[in-house]
Design brief:
Blueprint (H helix, E strand, L loop, with lengths): L1 H23 L24 H12 L2 E6 L2 E6 L2 H10 L1 H4 L6 H6 L13 H14 L2 H6 L1 H21 L5 H18 L14 H11 L4 H4 L2 H11 L1 H25 L12 H11 L10 H33 L1
Antiparallel strand pairs: 1-2
Length: 324
Amino acid sequence: MSILLYFFFLPVILSLIFMKKFKDSKRNLPPSPPKLPIIGNLHQLRGLFHRCLHDLSKKHGPVLLLRLGFIDMVVISSKEAAEEVLKVHDLECCTRPKTNASSKFSRDGKDIAFAPYGEVSRELRKLSLINFFSTQKVRSFRYIREEENDLMVKKLKESAKKKNTVDLSQTLFYLVGSIIFRATFGQRLDQNKHVNKEKIEELMFEVQKVGSLSSSDIFPAGVGWFMDFVSGRHKTLHKVFVEVDTLLNHVIDGHLKNPEDKTNQDRPDIIDSILETIYKQEQDESFKLTIDHLKGIIQVSIKSSSQFCQNSGTFISKVSYLLS
């Protein structure tokens, strides 16, 4: 079976390679490290991704071209080049690349991070900055941050008195998670009946894991899809998406059915603010927020918190290793 698949895909892959080389010869491209057929520079990206890019930039210059399978990636590693990309050519570079995972989790570009540049992304960011992530809104959640920090310090003191071992990575995760959940959902992490406290950390890190590039993103559609199917990535991505979407549906339905069932009725959370905006836009003929936009905005907060917790855990692990 594997031999038949090899002979079936080989002519397609070879034709794509020759077509790519012919197109590349007509473009003025940055310098690039030596590439291998089909995989490109993937074999040179071993270990920590940012360190690999740094090592390659030291050898090949501040602007270099990498080929990840069949897609091109330009790496910028100097202040001048970054200014050229982010300031001078901002409109050409501000849209994030569309991947298999980002399309699914962003509901085809309906969140803040992955919405393609245009009228929808401008309206979405304007509404988000004014109504949901403004300075006034952030300050209104100060009491949440103070209460959760005080609670964490209190628990650490109790553990110290009892001389119990403390997992700082898990402690920070629950701190950030409770702050995010209270500001977004109106409930602490351990108070939400739809959240399994033992599995929520694993779910958040799974979201980070499946959000990376897949074979479908860097190889031609048929080949990449088959590789992801064999590796089980399609199944994992769908499973994680369903778990996150189910959680969001439960929380949103709770706000719609029982708007009065909250700890602080005089302090609306982010979901309350978005739902109120949706109601106000019913008579507006311009851009309108939908439930999919709501989920996309919330997922940005959840993903940012999980990434922060993951980075914090790595930092703490390194410090503990150095002190041991």
